[in-house]
Amino acid sequence: MSSSSSSLLEMEIFQYIDAHQSDFIKDLKEWVAVESDSVQPHLRKEVMRMMALAADRLAALGATVNLVNLGSHQLPDGQVLPLPSVILGELGKDPQNPTVCFYGHVDVQPAKKEDGWNTDPYTLTEIDGNLYGRGATDNKGPVLAWINAVETFRALKFAMPVNFKFVIEGMEEAGSLGLEKLLEEENQRFFSDVDYIVISDNLWLSNKKPALTYGSRGNACFFVEVECGSKDLHSGTFGGIIHEPLLDLIALLDSLVDSTGHIQIPGIYDSVAALTEEERKLYESIEFELEEHRKNCGVKKFLYDTKEEILLHLWRYPSLSIHGIEGAFHEQGIKTVIPAKVIGKFSIRQVPHMDLSVVKKQVVKHLEGVFSKRNSPNKLKVSMPLGAKPWLADVNDLLYKAARRAIKTVFGEDPDFIRDGSTIPVARMFQTVTQKSVMMLPIGAADDGEHSQNEKISRHNYIEGTKLFAAFFLEISKLHRNLHETSHTEAIN
Amino acid sequence: MSSSSSSLLEMEIFQYIDAHQSDFIKDLKEWVAVESDSVQPHLRKEVMRMMALAADRLAALGATVNLVNLGSHQLPDGQVLPLPSVILGELGKDPQNPTVCFYGHVDVQPAKKEDGWNTDPYTLTEIDGNLYGRGATDNKGPVLAWINAVETFRALKFAMPVNFKFVIEGMEEAGSLGLEKLLEEENQRFFSDVDYIVISDNLWLSNKKPALTYGSRGNACFFVEVECGSKDLHSGTFGGIIHEPLLDLIALLDSLVDSTGHIQIPGIYDSVAALTEEERKLYESIEFELEEHRKNCGVKKFLYDTKEEILLHLWRYPSLSIHGIEGAFHEQGIKTVIPAKVIGKFSIRQVPHMDLSVVKKQVVKHLEGVFSKRNSPNKLKVSMPLGAKPWLADVNDLLYKAARRAIKTVFGEDPDFIRDGSTIPVARMFQTVTQKSVMMLPIGAADDGEHSQNEKISRHNYIEGTKLFAAFFLEISKLHRNLHETSHTEAIN
């Protein structure tokens, strides 16, 4: 923390936060203990329980809390599941204050101890200054840091520098189903007096240096299903005389990307925005430790050698990843089975100006073409169960200036201005629907391992992140009031 | 049942079996209720429990039972598990009688209701004359049918026509680990006075017509492991900049077989025995309903159009099947993960005169060649955790004559003389080690679905199969005594 730039008010706030570290970590431990996995149908009730906990927490702040029912959704297998309600919360209505809306989610990706976790994923465990647990960094930690930053003003009986709104959901890891419709419906109500939207659902680019995020890739998820019949077969009794669905599927999946990472689907790069010389220069100035990033993920070698190429391919070019196969044998040992129905799962990260409906057509046409050459009697079905657009913001916005100052105050250095290779569809969704200024303000470090085994947030990032949010409230309040007064003066002149 | 050829003794035996159907089905229900899955490590204790049940059952027959400890084995992940003991049982020592050794196994393939079973796989359920449950046909049903055939002679207080020996194991579905060594050790002891070996661990070729089996394919199982590091990665944060292990693995798996079912590994067909004109004629005479077989497995179309081509490719040509991938996402829904370590699993069915060590070298060389062209920095590891040789018997043997007569008595028709596309390594193992005459005498029908969802044995096959075994005891006794007397007479002349 760079004390030189901190006000007395800030000092008092930061001291309070430091003194209450154990309470804040206890809060996180309670939240991590809920297996609010929105991907696996049988855990939906845990997501519901998590939403209720979050609503209670906001009510305890003094916020008015509205749980909006979104109805239900149907899974690919026909099962109908209730959607968790979305929390819309409000705290403060001072007309002098800007209104900042915070978005976060409290659902998590699947995690099991046997996936390779060193500790139980649902028991927050501190080891060497890191807090390990599913959701610690994505996204329960940041949501609690924001709430605790607000709580600090309340506890110290300081006037709230901004009016708060909260949008907390429980379906982010499963595609934020129903959220866009809700935003549209609430655009003229809940969002009408919102000035700024802040999302803290991503990571810094490095392990140590803070960052501000102004763009993210979208994602188009695909299911490729190949089926030969209703029952699995024995490879001794049928091996050699049938067209095995898994062989068809593997040929289809193998046709998608070459060994250099280049996507082989015809036309897929046609709409990708051309790289300008000015944009390339922006990348040159970013501090990015290629070797640190490589160590974080554990691979021996990247597909590209320079920082610029790596960042360009992460942020502004599409990529295709294969995630796995449903229906084939996946356990330890051997099962001499010919699976009857297999579903390959892959996704293509979207960048400006790719069009989801065009991408879907290109993928289906390509796969059908490859399949037809195999003369297989099996059934092929290609679907795109989820499609999220990319997002890009204006870094000269007031919101980004305020965040930059707060970062300088708490961390003593300027942030990197970065984009995110991950899909955060809510950023794009909030901007498109509300037309407000949207910013992503991460507090997790690059090595936090979101979606991976041994996900963590460091105690340092969790606590300093809480301070960052508190400092940001003061900065955006100041800048907003200045702008407002200036506008007012101009109006008089 | 063709009563014309049945003796009074047989009639009485068959009546007893008919009258005790419910008891025999109750026995099977008890055995099926034990989840004796030898593939999944955490169920090993259930295999142990099943072995104890089988030992008790043999002891109740009056057999002396010896449980031979085989020690332990190590899994690919380093875990050490105890091997279930093998049961060596003996009943009767009449020097006038032939000694018939029966082999069976009481472990099963993995099964879960959610794999697509209509009933709980571990609750034997009768629907329309079929008994559904894991292990019903493979191999608990046939083992119990044999035991109950022996039990019938005991209950009726008839002299035993043969001396019985039993070899019952609990690791067949996981490669019969330790069994070959045991056979070698016991060859001069337990097997020294064995005349014939009977295995009933396969199926008829049709749903209705009985069969005798004189050969089976072997199997070489392969694991192909590709690894980029120790932890799974997020496809947003790393997609597009790393060599994804699953992409490498899919390219490797896609290089194995073409869309016509032809294996692409160089040299793999070099040692396959050439098809003679005489052998081809043997195939022409077999009764085989192509359309029925197709319906049994549910596929729209086979790779070949004629009965001969289908049987040749099932029985005397190698085939390659891919079973699945360990380590990738395999559940419902979407997980935007880049798996760090994936293990592809496939197997190649072996036929005379392929050599397992040569096949292994060919596979490793081929995969390493494909991998090296990808310039991937990931780690590749190819292993062959299981290799089983093919087996071929002489159909003019006494054993086959006796079984043919018993089939004619019980089912009223001659059997098909068939081979099996499945691997039954014990047949080859028993023949190689003991040099005795080995026969496979199936009682399950073609549509029993071994290793598949909704495995079953029909009530008809289970009960008539019990009669078949009892009739076989009488026939082999008669033929053996005749042969013995003839030899004796010849020796005097």
UniProtKB/TrEMBL annotation, chains A, B:
Keywords: Hydrolase, Manganese, Metal-binding, Metalloprotease, Phosphoprotein, Protease. Belongs to the peptidase M20A family. Coiled coil: none annotated. GO terms for biological process: proteolysis. The record marks 234 as: Important for catalytic activity. The active site is at 107, 172 (proton acceptor). It comes from Cyanistes caeruleus (Eurasian blue tit). Transmembrane segments: none annotated. One of its GO terms (cellular component) is cytosol. Residues 217-370 form the Peptidase M20 dimerisation domain. This is Carnosine dipeptidase 1. Gene3D superfamilies: 3.30.70.360, Zn peptidases. Its cofactor is Mn(2+). Binds 2 manganese ions per subunit. Mn(2+) 2 binds at residues 105, 138, 201. Pfam families: M20_dimer (PF07687), Peptidase_M20 (PF01546). Mn(2+) 1 binds at residues 138, 173, 451. One of its GO terms (molecular function) is metallodipeptidase activity. InterPro entries: CNDP/DUG1 (IPR017153), Cyt/Met_Dipeptidase (IPR051458), Peptidase_M20 (IPR002933), Peptidase_M20_dimer (IPR011650).
